[in-house]
Backbone:
């Protein structure tokens, strides 16, 4: 009964590959987010979706494409992976009217 | 350009004493502030928040103070417990949207 879940927890892949990370929330929230935590441990917003529509799109390479099939899911697809994509990616969700975001456990992506 | 800064990367405190974690921000458009706690290999969990119209918010052992003129907030934990050992992130919300900007985190170690 995890509130915000992500799969996989760990992902190791080669440069140039395409990979996806899945996120699901069962909190009934209408807004979902993707954050990247880099090697310096800063958490930075990448995308935000409200009711399946993109509302925040920070400066992220086009190789990153979020997809929201429904309000409870926000998946992140990454094309042509690069070494610099290695990081921990966190999914989060909230009600649009609320300031509190709830985070998933993170996916550690390692690009070799 | 870091708009939210936590200048102390780590803090060590004796059990039972007070822990004070500090956070500074530069963007005057921030109107809501949150503290998150993060254990290793887990996602950040919401701890406490404060609106810019207040200068103090208390929840059990946790109190957040906001000094708008100084653009500074602090989290006080009294008394500190070994289970409080974690990384604490300060986050701020821009009044123009739901995006959270995070500080770099402070690692708190509470010694028994």
Residues:
């Amino acid at each position: 009964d995890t509130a915000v879940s992500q799969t996989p927890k760990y992902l190791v892949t080669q440069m140039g590959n395409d990979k996806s990370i899945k996120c699901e929330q069962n909190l009934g929230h209408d807004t979902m987010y993707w954050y990247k935590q880099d090697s310096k441990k800063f958490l930075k917003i990448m995308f935000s979706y409200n009711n399946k529509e993109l509302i925040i799109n920070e400066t992220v390479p086009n190789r990153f494409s979020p997809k929201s099939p429904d309000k409870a899911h926000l998946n992140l697809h990454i094309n042509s992976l690069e070494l610099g994509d290695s990081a921990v990616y966190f999914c989060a969700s909230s009600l649009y009217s609320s300031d509190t975001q709830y985070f998933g456990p993170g996916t550690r992506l390692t690009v070799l | 350009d870091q708009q939210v800064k936590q200048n102390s990367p780590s803090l060590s405190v004796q059990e039972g004493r007070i822990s004070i974690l500090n956070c500074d921000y530069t963007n005057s458009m921030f109107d809501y502030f949150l503290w998150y706690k993060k254990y290793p290999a887990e996602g950040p969990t919401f701890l406490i928040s404060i609106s810019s119209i207040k200068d103090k918010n208390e929840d059990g052992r946790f109190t957040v103070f906001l000094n708008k003129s100084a653009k500074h907030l602090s989290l006080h934990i009294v008394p500190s417990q070994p289970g409080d050992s974690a990384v604490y992130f300060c986050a701020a919300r821009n009044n123009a949207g739901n995006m959270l900007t995070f500080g770099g985190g402070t690692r708190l170690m509470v010694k028994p």
